[in-house]
């Protein structure tokens, strides 16, 4: 899968229960549209969506499960339970929150990474800053993604991708660095590639029409 995604586009097709497009059928069609447009892999949430997307597109999938726990802020593949569910989905890679925050059930990042790897599945570490990426690489993940930069209390929320962070990661890590989060335009995508990333994930700008519509509406509201 790492060979397939190199220098190409991954599209995230996700719609949670509170989003208008929440439906495995629709996510499958979204993924098919992304494939037709040239995406080589899909990032998807939930077992039903992953199964549908794989059935419709045959593309490799980065699987996650978003679930909230009372004792932690972590919600992207937070525990071994979600990993076990994803292992049944057929996804090629599992992404999990690799931030330096307390995990639910006091599980450790190391044990979760080792567990996924023991099943022969690739691991993507969703990080929010430089230190988390370095630690994840040492723990043996296959790639890091900037998914959570700007989404933790200790990272700055920017309008677009965090190019400074990306450049530092590309310079210091010897595993693939994936740009993800707030790649809002083709220009943003060109910029992250010029910063040296291995691959990139685009989500909302392609697959969340409610947010795309809002941008247009905002442009005419003073
Ligand atoms: C922070 C968080 O929960 N990110 C999620 C991670 O899977 C998704 O909601 C994002 O759509 C995805 O990361 C792609 O980013 P963007 O939609 O900005 O292109």
UniProtKB/TrEMBL annotation:
Pathway: Amino-sugar metabolism; N-acetylneuraminate degradation; D-fructose 6-phosphate from N-acetylneuraminate: step 3/5. GO terms for biological process: carbohydrate metabolic process; N-acetylmannosamine catabolic process; N-acetylneuraminate catabolic process. Converts N-acetylmannosamine-6-phosphate (ManNAc-6-P) to N-acetylglucosamine-6-phosphate (GlcNAc-6-P). One of its GO terms (molecular function) is N-acylglucosamine-6-phosphate 2-epimerase activity. GO terms for cellular component: cytosol. Belongs to the NanE family. It comes from the Bacteria. Gene3D superfamilies: Aldolase class I. HAMAP family: ManNAc6P_epimer (MF_01235). InterPro entries: Aldolase_TIM, NanE, RibuloseP-bd_barrel. Its EC number is 5.1.3.9. The keyword Isomerase applies. It catalyses: an N-acyl-D-glucosamine 6-phosphate = an N-acyl-D-mannosamine 6-phosphate. The lineage of its organism: Bacteria, Bacillati, Bacillota, Clostridia, Peptostreptococcales. Pfam families: NanE. This is Putative N-acetylmannosamine-6-phosphate 2-epimerase. SUPFAM superfamilies: Ribulose-phoshate binding barrel. Keywords: Carbohydrate metabolism, Isomerase.
